[in-house]
Amino acid sequence: MSEQNAENTPYLRKIRSFVRREGRLTKGQAQALEKCWPTMGLEHGMGLLDFAKVFGNSNPVVLEIGFGMGKSLVEMAQAAPELNFIGIEVHKPGVGACLMAASEAGVTNLRVFEHDAVEVLADNIPAASLARMQLFFPDPWHKKRHHKRRIVQLEFAESLRKKLAIGGVFHMATDWENYAEHMLEVMNAAPGYQNQSASNDYVPRPEHRPKTKFEARGERLGHGVWDLMFERVE
Ligand SMILES: C[S@@+](CC[C@H](N)C(=O)[O-])C[C@H]1O[C@@H](n2cnc3c(N)ncnc32)[C@H](O)[C@@H]1O
Question: Are 25 and 93 in contact (CB under 8 A)?
């Protein structure tokens, strides 16, 4: 059955925010997966996690969805040893690249899932357990008929809020203005959050989010980047 037919069939319908690309692993990524997975890999089948056991300490936990190749996630983990980081990514070469970078940087406060973040959130992350949730440059799904695939939806915002501690923050960034507007609309409609923006829309990029090479180039070309930070208040 084609993907489109599967989406339209009531009992099979599951709209995902990604299309799995099989991409080959480089030798370095394969080696990093083999070497680091036993200590840094988390599996969806593990059920609800006990963060103190996973990290061996009770530092606050930051969760990042869709870390790509993991460059900025590893930088953040290295810069903040007083925090624990969990990254979720479906693209295996990205997971391999992230583990390679983490191992080169000697980072020990990072764990990763290779799985759909929506399922990990539902099945592995305890309620009210996260200090911060990060979603940087999610797939924008440009075409209107694909907007339903955007990961930021009311239902997602709601399931995520339950996993944030009160006072915890959901931090999003995008370079696609229409997606920024969509994020703002969804988050304004989602109960239990407070926008941290003084102007009730976007915030300046906070220090803890490293500027990517791609973003620096975009800025030189006059392209915008929008950061949104919403705090869980209820
Ligand atoms: C446009 S890329 C951005 C990557 C990275 N955050 C960056 O800024 O370079 C979006 C990433 O999100 C991942 N992704 C999309 N939906 C996901 C989901 N439901 N669970 C885990 N990863 C997801 C994709 O595989 C892709 O690597």
Answer: yes
Q: Ligand 1 pocket, 116 CB below 6 A?
A: yes
- The pLDDT score that the predictor gives to residue 143 is 95
Q: Smallest Cα–Cα separation from 152: which of 186, 203, 197, 192?
A: 186
**What is the pLDDT, as a whole number, of residue 102?**
98
Instruction: Please tell me the chain's helix, strand, coil percentages from 3-state DSSP, rounded to the nearest 5.
Output: 40, 20, 40
User: In the predicted model, is pLDDT for residue 138 greater than 90?
Assistant: yes
Indicate whether 5 pLDDT > 50. no
pTM: 0.93
CA-CA-CA-CA dihedral for 93, 98, 104, 107, to nearest 10: -150
Residue among 151, 150, 143 nearest 118 (CA): 151
89 CA from centroid of ligand 1 (Å): 6
What stretches of the chain show up as alpha helix (H) in DSSP?
A: 3-8, 27-40, 51-55, 71-79, 92-105, 117-124, 154-163, 177-189, 213-220
Active site annotation includes 139 = yes
SS (H, E, C) 180-202: HHHHHHHHHHCCCEEECCCCCCC
Q: Which two tokens stand for residue 185?
A: 């609309």
